[in-house]
Specification:
The chain is mainly beta and about 475 residues long. The chain contains 4 helices and 30 strands. The protein has a 4-stranded antiparallel β-sheet, with no helix packed on it. It is globular, with a radius of gyration of 30 Å.
């Protein structure tokens, strides 16, 4: 056994440490004034195994079991720490630009970034190039580009993959679980699927140009979980021809129409501006967002300025029936108070079943409850158009909006319901930001694409990725407000 080493100070008595001569050692500091010999005896006693009274221990545990279970059940039902998560990420107090990505050939053609999407791993970002301003760009060559942000030696001006597309690409979306699959919607009305792991020939499925194909540009595409087979996905496409179509992949490389909806005049308020298509009055659909709580419920934005609550479970036929290989149904169930111009974007809350956002050409964002027509909150974010609005996937009270004045605005209802927490200058005031997308896997990242052909990756500050302890309560209060 090692020697006892006394340490003296003017404040306390002797403090001794003991080390056992075995492969592991322990130290013990006495924080009180004790006699040296008593401490040595205490250390020796600690190293001897004390007998355990198992019968007494069992009796004690049985005696307190009911009380402990009662307290655990009480804690389990408590909402005191709802929304609280331990966060080990380094604190970052500023929003900064990590990458400015571009494809020089697309910029030379003055193409715009029309859409952006993150893949299932959160490490690869894709963008589509095309045009959202005036003109017939249906025959102009465009591109889909991807960058792997985790790859060493990332070249911001050289995408990892460039796919040439014969028509302007208006929208795209990565598959939710297969990292290499991308679906895109074209100005021509066609829907295509690419496999980015096939460098030489990535195109694997397409709708072709048939009677079922959209007759107007496709403004949104998404992957829809098959209700019969949870690991299978179908493709959803939305167009200003008034149709919302669901496609299934076929072995021959074709996408086959399996379900469809058509928005027609009979379903919506008479005050809406409508257009005639193939002899019927159709309503142009610009955007769609599914409920995160009920897979049959979705919100759409339309050119007439309205947001509409819709359902996939409807049986009502769309009258008059459009030219289609299958009967199309009329999905609209409820119309919300309109914007002052076309609605370009809608986003359902991932944290509350009744809340959604809408934005449009009037520069306003509306926070809506699905239970009432009037918006809970109306915010003017821009004197120009709003092209995209997205709820944060991790902060219930945070959303981002892309403006026609070159800004990405981050709102936090926990701080203010009237002004943005941060305004990010993405581009010049004359250069609209067309698309934004939060990264679900790497939650500190936000991608934004603009009319100059630039795709920027922003790193968000800690404020925007750490949920507050009472944030869900605040969201519930917002949702329960009643408007006149």
């Amino acid at each position: 056994m090692g020697p006892t080493r006394p340490q003296k100070s003017c404040q306390t008595g002797e403090i001794s440490t003991m080390e056992a001569a075995v492969q592991s050692h322990s130290s013990r500091d006495a924080g009180m004034q004790t006699d040296q010999s008593e401490e040595t005896i205490q250390d020796l006693d600690l190293q001897q195994e004390a007998p355990v009274d198992y019968a007494g221990l069992l009796s004690f545990l049985q005696g307190v079991e009911d009380v402990v279970i009662k307290e655990l059940n009480k804690n389990w039902r408590s909402h005191a720490f709802d929304g609280f998560e331990v966060n080990w990420v380094d604190q970052n107090e500023t929003v900064s630009c990590l990458h400015s990505l571009l494809y020089p050939e697309a910029q030379d053609q003055k193409l715009q970034v029309t859409s952006v999407s993150w893949n299932a791993t959160g490490s690869v970002v894709a963008c589509s190039y095309g045009r959202l301003d005036d003109g017939d760009w249906s025959t102009e060559k465009s591109y889909v580009c991807t960058w792997n942000l985790d790859r060493r030696g990332l070249n911001p001006k050289r995408p990892d993959l460039v796919v040439d597309v014969p028509s302007s690409v208006m929208c795209l979306a990565f598959h939710p679980s297969q990292p290499s699959l991308i679906v895109g919607g074209l100005y021509s009305g066609e829907v295509l699927i690419w496999d980015t792991s096939r460098i030489e020939d990535p195109l694997i499925w397409r709708t072709g140009m048939t009677d079922d194909t959209h007759t107007d540009p496709v403004y949104q595409v998404d992957w829809l979980q098959d209700s019969k087979h949870s690991h299978h996905f179908q493709i959803l496409s939305v167009s200003t021809d008034g149709k919302i179509l669901v496609w299934q992949t076929q072995r021959d490389g074709q996408l086959m129409l399996v379900e469809g909806f058509a928005l027609v005049a009979q379903q919506i308020p008479r005050s809406m501006k409508l257009k005639r298509t193939r002899g019927e009055t159709a309503v142009g659909v610009t955007s769609l967002s599914f409920s995160h709580f009920d897979p049959s419920v979705f919100i759409i934005g339309v050119e007439g300025g309205y947001s509409l609550k819709c359902s996939t479970a409807v049986e009502t036929a769309a009258v008059p029936r459009t030219v289609s290989s299958i009967p199309l149904k009329a999905p609209a169930q409820f119309a919300f108070s309109p914007h002052g111009g076309p609605v370009y974007c809608v986003s359902c809350s991932p944290f509350h079943r009744n809340l959604f956002l809408s934005g449009g050409t009037d520069g306003h964002v509306h926070l809506h409850s699905m239970l009432q027509a009037q918006p809970l909150i109306s915010l003017q974010l821009s004197k120009k158009y709003l092209f995209s609005v997205r709820w944060s996937p991790v902060r219930p009270l945070v959303f981002a909006a892309a403006t026609g004045e070159g800004e990405v605005q981050l709102f936090d209802f926990g701080k203010s319901s009237q002004k943005p927490a941060v305004s990010i200058k993405q581009a010049s005031a004359q250069t609209p930001v067309y698309c934004i997308e939060f990264n679900i896997k790497q939650t500190q990242l936000l991608a934004a694409g603009d009319a100059s052909g630039m795709l920027k990756i922003w790193q968000l500050s800690s404020d925007f990725i750490q949920q507050g302890p009472r944030e869900m309560n605040h969201l519930e209060q917002l949702a329960n407000e009643v408007t006149d």
